[in-house]
Amino acid sequence: MQRGVTLPELLLALVLLGLLSLIAIPRLAAITNAAALRSEATLLLRALDVARISAIRLGTPTTLTLTESRYAVAGGVPGDSAAPWQREGPAARGVALSGGGVPIRFSPAGIALGVANRTFTLSRGGASRRVVISRLGRITP
After folding, report:
1. What is the distance in angstroms between the CA of the first residue and the CA of the last residue of the chain?
2. In the chain, N or C: fewer CB atoms in 10 Å?
3. Which domains, ranges and CATH numbers included, belong to the chain?
């Protein structure tokens, strides 16, 4: 009696493994893209919250700048040029951001100045996600 695997059995196992991976890999990429967008939307919401809360807490206008390379909140204390809060932008995580570039200013009351409704679109691979901020500071992920 011989032990082991014959060549046809090994080839059949490899073909089945190949077929299963053809089905699973695209789905895995979609799940990964959706998770990255969800995480990036959370970071974007955090940046908006930090800017708004800083304006309310300090009683002075703050400015939020959202670009592909970084998120930064500036202002708060008159004459202070240092950014009190900043993070890497979405490009560092392979996510594209559209709708950024123009800074958003928050008044001491927490209201976004000069913004009616602003939509940010995050995209990666074939997936995308929108985040909308209203003038009153309402955020819709």
Report:
1. 65
2. N
3. 7-140 (3.55.40.10)
